[in-house]
Amino acid sequence: MRTPRSFAALGLALALGLAPGVAAATGLTDHGADLEAPPSFIELSGYFRMRGSLFYNLDLDRGPTPSGQIFFPVSLSDPTAQLLTAADTRIRTDVNLYAPWGGMALKVRLDALDNVLLGSMPEGAPSASTSQRADQPLFALRRAYAEILTPFGMLAFGRMGNGWGLGMLANGGDCLDCDSGDSADRVAFVSPLLGHLWALAYDFTAAGAPVEHKDGFRVVDVEPKAIVHTFTFAVSKYRGPDARTRRSAAGKVTPEYGAFASYRFQDSDVPATYLPVAQPVPLEAGQVMARGYQAVASDLWLRFEGKHFRVEAEAAYLHASVEQPSLIPGVLYRDPVTSNQVGAALETEFGDADARFRAGLDAGFASGDAAPGFGAIAKPGQLPAVAGDLDGPQANPPFDAEVNNFRFHPDYRVDRILFREIIGTVTDAVYLKPHLRYDLITGIRGKLSVGLAGVLSFAAVPESTPGQSAALGFEIDPTITYQSDFGFRADLEQATLIPMAGLENLELGLAPTPAQLWRLRLSYSYRGP
Fold it and tell me: Distance between CA 160 and CA 158 in Å, rounded?
């Protein structure tokens, strides 16, 4: 019997969020250095971003999969048309409020017009519109948490960013081109000891069955057994970008590293609180199901940086099990669903002392699963994939009780077309990425740079690809960037994907054809008092 939602969407999507953050914005890799001597009462930072994209033939002209999937949206009126467009904006503001006497801070992140498609809300008839409506939520409060410096370390609590290392596993979404970003409702304590930072954290990962209180203002959790609990322990040696810059200028190599172990569990579940249903389901005892969900995650991150090089790596192992994977009350499975996932990423960069020319080789691995499709974005209620599909749930109990495909965070960008736009993220794959960058002009109140990268991609498990072959494609990604000294930046990006046998349509006998992308991104970053 098929469940309306696969374990890939239920269990492993949760497991990917286990990692604690390593960025200073998370409160897990500093011990309140900015709280000891506050720079001012209030500190503002953020950016404004506008970007536009042209997509050419991202469906690869290889037709639909056996389940009717297409690799990328096509024109409504002419499915053979090749060109699609998109443009959006984001205004991000980070506000830090410091107590005048030091030792305490409140930190907030607010996004406005976040990924809102330009021209998507015309006032009145589109052809006659002179304004854009504001009847949709245009603001998003991403973070709101407090930090308090104690004699033994720093206490942080609230909703904070969730990132670690390279951002391969958990990513706070802090980059200029990021689309999402992880956050956690967390209580954490960080203490410096023996030259390292030691952190303990508890995450309020998910409430069990929230219902409105009779006063109409509060919410009460009426099923404590369905609460998802996450405990994390982390240790790190983290100096930060300013310290690395100073040490590199002095000819010193800066080693940084970190490791964490995390455990998450859920005893029972109430699927009616999150599954899509035609009519609201009343919350009652019959909707509570035994779950027996447990997950552990471990991650190791290393970085060595000197005047002429940077080498950074991250590796993670995730294990999870669900004793009762059924989401339908009264329908039970005999066997549990389990998962073992492995992922790793390497970034290197070498160059001359003034960094005008830099080159390196990046690489990555994400374990795969023999089930059809990549399992990158499994949706609630999605039927199991069949051979030749691009995506789909990787578990189909009781016939298939394993989910082993590791998924990189979508904001950890490896390429511009294959993983980012077509598959959705790096999963069930191996890639190699040589890259170089050269500063053409400097001293013009900024610098003008050019870059070039090539990404060669293979499937970790060839049987899961649409074409039943390991070779996925080779992508060429050139870039032109102007970065001013006062915060303005312009990036012109292009990409050409040459697809290979792993993306063929075996059922229709169609070979994929090359795809191209152009993207212009304009941004202004600021930091105020």
Answer: 6
Residue 227 burial class via C-beta count within 10 angstroms: exposed 0-12, middle 13-18, buried 19 and up: middle
User: 2 exposed, middle or buried (CB, 10 Å; 0-12, 13-18, 19+)?
Assistant: middle
433's tokens: 């990425």
Q: Place domain 7-119+139-276+288-527 in its CATH homologous superfamily.
A: Porin (2.40.160.10)
Q: CA gyration radius for the chain? A: 24
Secondary structure E strands in 332-417: 337-351, 357-366
Return the ∠ at Cα 20 (arms to 15 and 26), rounded to 5°.
140
Q: If you write DSSP's letter for every residue of 366-432 in order, what string do you get?
A: E---SSSS--SSPPTTPPPP-TT-S---S-BTTTB-B----B--TTS-S-SSIIIIIISS-BSEEEE
- Phi, psi angles (nearest 5°) of residue 308: -115, 5
Query: What is the torsion angle, in degrees rounded to the nearest 10, for the CA atoms of residue 52, residue 56, residue 58 and residue 62?
Result: 170
pLDDT per residue, tens digit, the chain (529 aa), is 333 333 333 333 323 233 333 333 444 555 566 776 666 789 999 999 999 999 999 999 999 999 998 999 999 988 888 999 999 999 999 999 998 887 899 999 999 999 888 888 888 888 888 888 887 778 999 999 999 999 999 999 999 999 899 999 999 999 999 999 999 999 999 999 998 999 999 999 998 888 888 887 888 888 899 899 999 999 999 887 888 888 888 889 999 999 999 999 999 988 888 887 777 777 888 888 899 999 999 999 999 999 899 999 999 999 999 998 888 888 888 889 999 999 999 999 999 767 789 999 999 999 999 999 999 987 766 788 899 999 998 988 888 889 999 999 999 999 999 999 999 999 999 999 999 999 999 888 899 999 999 999 999 999 999 999 999 999 999 999 999 999 999 999 999 999 999 999 999 999 999 999 999 999 999 987 6
Give the C-alpha separation, 403 to 426, whole Å.
15
CA distance 398 to 279: 28
Domain boundaries, the chain: 7-119+139-276+288-527
Contacts of 96 (CB under 8 A, 6+ apart): 34, 42, 43, 44, 105, 106, 107, 108
Residue 512 backbone phi and psi in degrees, to 5: -70, 150
Three-state secondary structure call for residue 10 = helix
Token duo for residue 256 = 């940084």
Tell me which residue has tokens 């930190």: 107
Do 83 and 18 meet the contact criterion of CB atoms below 8 Å apart? no
Helix (H) or strand (E) holding 483: strand 471-484
Name the residue with tokens 């192992």: 317
Q: Which of 495, 482, 413, 490 is nearest to 454 (CA)?
A: 495
Rounded distance between C-alpha atoms, residue 338 and residue 383, angstroms: 19
Q: Which residue has the tokens 């590199």?
A: 248
User: 32, 147 in Cβ contact below 8 A?
Assistant: yes
Contacting residues for 195 by C-beta, under 8 A, at least 6 apart: 237
What is the Cα–Cα distance from 88 to 199, expressed in whole angstroms?
38
